[in-house]
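Here is one chain, start to finish.
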Amino acid sequence: MLQQIQSAPPGQFDMVFRDVQIQAHQQALQLHQGYASGGDVPALRTTASNIVPVVQNHLNMLQACR
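Its structure:
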């Protein structure tokens, strides 16, 4: 992802950065949702569960900028 940002064509940095952020937030959301439902450490399951709506909100905001 970093390479995508570094090689963004002139004038397209913002668009490439946004798209990479969407990708990263989608991956983070999947990771936290998965751990919240199947993680093996109860305290971390709770933390993952609590962060899911935050990441989802960030993803929604990024997608609204398209």
